[in-house]
Design the sequence.
């Protein structure tokens, strides 16, 4: 059975989550799987919170947000789920910490682990930039365009609606494979046709992911990217 | 000489740090840590400095870069475009590990002079 743990949140906030998710706060001596609610999400808190026995780490920002992953299945399979706001995903860049949690928990080879980190980073970047911040139509092909891209980026990160949309990342392990999913709360992503020009300045993220994962596909009208890796 | 060490703004997360030094007609840019999608604002400053300079050579020292993503590759390509407009040569020096592997898979050796 799952229980809740808080890291930088008040007992009142934890009790609120316990009621909304139907998960109890810890019983003394119990050492089963945990859902961790993190108040101030920095890199250290993220690394601590993704270690076993955590199966889910939810950033507290006006609440824990809606849970996108099936917690019961995560608990059964010893998966890992992370939900954080767009602003935190941009500031903390969680791919490295998630990779380390996955590498340790599932005993991955270095080569697979590196591929997972690259793919996670690209998927999270797409969820943040194209999904939640809706920056797909803002060009960044040239140095001049990058100036306005950065201005719009900072405006949208500070936007109370866009900046607080969530990015959800989770992994479900199976004996021979790991399936990762990255979900955003944007309008849905339709990838442009891939260019093979090595000098293009953008649009190579999905190409990179497809070159690293055994299989990739989109779910929920492009709001969720799934990537499968061999173990 | 250390010319600049960027102060991270509230969204940068402090991931990318760089130093630039200009001497003998060359700009040397030393990057540290991770170069990712969150570093557009930092990289914009690098490009501005290059555009304002009369240097004929740009050297990016990457020995201390542990990770680069597709956005980071895009930023280096923007530097390449800027250098090309100013008829300056660009050299990527000492890529290691993941950086070296992603350069290779992205065929960067066809676009840049890469020195080990």
Sequence:
């Amino acid at each position: 059975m799952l229980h809740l743990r808080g890291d930088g949140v008040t007992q009142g906030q934890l009790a609120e989550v316990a009621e909304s998710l139907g998960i109890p706060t810890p019983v003394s001596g119990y050492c089963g799987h945990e859902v961790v609610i993190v108040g101030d999400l920095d890199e250290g808190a993220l690394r601590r919170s993704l270690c076993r026995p955590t199966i889910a780490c939810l950033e507290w920002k006006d609440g824990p947000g809606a849970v996108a992953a099936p917690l019961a299945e995560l608990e059964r399979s010893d998966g890992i789920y992370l939900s954080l706001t767009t602003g935190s995903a941009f500031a903390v860049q969680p791919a490295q910490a998630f990779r380390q949690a996955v590498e340790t928990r599932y005993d991955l080879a270095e080569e697979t682990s590196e591929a997972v980190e690259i793919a996670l980073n690209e998927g999270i970047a797409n969820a943040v930039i194209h999904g939640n911040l809706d920056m797909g139509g803002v060009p960044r092909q040239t140095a001049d365009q990058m100036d306005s891209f950065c201005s719009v980026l900072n405006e949208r990160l500070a936007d109370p609606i866009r900046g607080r949309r969530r990015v959800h990342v989770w992994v479900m392990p199976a004996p021979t494979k790991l399936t990762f999913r990255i979900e955003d709360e944007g309008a849905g992503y339709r990838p442009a046709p891939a260019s093979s020009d090595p000098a293009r300045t953008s649009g190579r993220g999905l190409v990179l992911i497809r070159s690293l994962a055994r299989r990739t596909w989109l779910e929920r009208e492009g709001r969720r990217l799934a990537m499968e890796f061999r173990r | 000489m250390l010319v600049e060490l960027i102060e991270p703004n509230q969204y940068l997360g402090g991931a990318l740090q760089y130093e630039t030094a200009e001497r003998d007609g060359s700009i040397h840019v030393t990057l540290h840590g991770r170069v990712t999608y969150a570093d557009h604002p930092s990289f914009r400053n690098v490009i501005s400095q290059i555009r304002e300079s009369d240097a004929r050579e740009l050297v990016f020292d990457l020995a201390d870069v542990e990770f680069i993503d597709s956005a980071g590759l895009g930023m280096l390509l923007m530097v390449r475009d800027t250098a090309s407009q100013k008829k300056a040569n660009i050299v990527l020096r000492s890529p290691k590990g993941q950086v070296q592997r992603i350069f290779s898979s992205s065929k960067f050796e066809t676009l840049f002079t890469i020195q080990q």
